[in-house]
Design a protein that fits this description.
It is built from 13 helices and five strands. It is mainly alpha-helical and 342 residues long. It folds into two domains: 213 residues, Rossmann fold (3-Layer(aba) Sandwich); 83 residues, Tyrosyl-Transfer RNA Synthetase, CATH 1.10.240. The strands form two sheets. A three-stranded parallel β-sheet has the order 1-2-3, with helices on both faces. Helix 7 packs across helix 8. The longest helix has 30 residues. The protein starts with 9 loop residues before the first strand and ends in a 9-residue tail after the last helix. The protein binds tryptophan. Tryptophan binds next to strand 1 and helix 7.
Length: 342
């Protein structure tokens, strides 16, 4: 490994604890986090405070936070190289969110498309749902993150985080790094097996045939992929044509799991006698990739003390970075920080 003199770029991302993590989350996000661990300093945060912007069953939430953390570790987030922690374990997130809330014009928040769509189907949307992106900005700005890998749906929230940082810097002096969104193009959108024109989603993740969960058994994975919707043709090609979305999705998954380039992937299927062969090969690639993840996950969930220990280490390391920053933020706006809080 080559030792670089410049400090590693800092990457931060947050992951929702609600729902079950699936292949789309893995290929669209977690796989890159794991691959980037050597060259970049990664901070990965299970965002339980974001989850409670809508009602969560308390016991289920706790279970899902632990499950999500365990899955991230199982996917290969290495607690020695990266900082994996639970958002609410670091108080500075809530404190910074409040201070940034007070700096954020209401109009900026009312424009957020995710808020508009989430609030539209709710009789009584919480105030938290409106200020959700400010908490997200706090997550990022507290750590001076250089890069924030997110899905395409988070682009607007990232722009808001930059606007909030810029405005704060302007009013109170240089305080925050302006974070760059990193939005993966290829493979960022893994589509649903039961409807390849829609993104694989956590909320529909329990529907039969929609997604492959990272905790699914081999047989279930094979069954889901065998039933994947394709088209009535027989051409195995990468294609933007909506008609070929199912085949394109299967090839994309295969490509990302095997690490082969497009040409090599197509070569693997040059002799295929139809979509049956394609599905079989994709299913095996998925089974082989998910099996070790599932096994590590089960081991961690069976050892709560070890999971607690790893999360405590992560929270300690996150706190060591966030604490000096929250003190600086408070001082900037004129809040005194008593010795007891230093
Ligand atoms: N809002 C993000 C999502 O739903 C999750 C998130 C919370 C996040 N805090 C973050 C993502 C900070 C990146 C950085 O996916």
């Amino acid at each position: 490994m080559t030792e670089s003199k410049t400090p590693r770029r800092r990457v931060l991302s947050g992951i929702q604890p609600s729902g079950r993590m699936h292949l789309g989350n893995y290929l669209g996000a977690v796989q890159q986090w794991v691959q980037a661990q050597e060259e970049k300093e990664g901070l990965y945060c299970v965002v339980d405070l974001h989850a409670i912007t809508v009602y969560q069953d308390p016991e289920e939430l706790e279970e899902q936070v632990r499950g999500t953390a365990a899955l991230l570790l199982a996917c290969g987030i290495d607690p020695e190289k990266s900082v994996l922690f639970v958002q609410s374990h670091v108080r500075a997130h809530s404190e910074a969110a409040w201070i940034l809330n007070c700096q954020t014009p209401l109009g900026w928040l009312e424009r957020m498309t995710q808020f508009k769509s989430k609030a539209a189907n709710k009789e009584r949307a919480s105030a938290g749902l409106l200020t959700y992106p400010v908490l997200q900005a706090a997550d990022i700005l507290l750590y001076d993150a250089d890069e924030v890998p997110v899905g395409d749906d988070q682009r607007q929230h990232l722009e808001l985080a930059r606007d909030i940082a810029g405005r704060f810097n302007h009013l109170y002096g240089e305080t925050f790094v302006l974070p760059e969104p990193v939005i993966r193009k290829f493979g960022a959108r893994i589509m649903a097996f039961d409807n390849p024109t829609a993104k694989m989603s956590k909320s529909s993740g329990d529907a039969q045939g929609h997604a492959v969960a990272l905790t699914d058994e081999d047989a279930k994975i094979r069954k889901t992929i065998k039933r994947a919707v394709t088209d009535s043709g027989r051409e195995i090609v990468f294609s933007e044509d909506p008609e070929k979305a199912g085949v394109n999705n299967l090839l994309t998954i295969y490509k990302l799991l095997t690490g082969k380039d497009q040409e090599a992937v197509l070569k693997d299927f040059a002799e295929a006698r139809g979509y049956g062969d394609l599905k079989k090969a994709v299913a095996e690639a998925v089974v082989e990739s998910i099996r070790p993840i599932r096994e590590r996950y089960e081991r961690l969930m069976g050892d709560p003390a070890e999971l607690d220990r790893l999360l405590a280490v992560g929270a300690d390391r996150a706190r060591a970075l966030a604490e000096p920053k929250i003190i600086q933020i408070k001082e900037r706006v004129g809040l005194t920080v008593p010795a007891a809080l230093r």
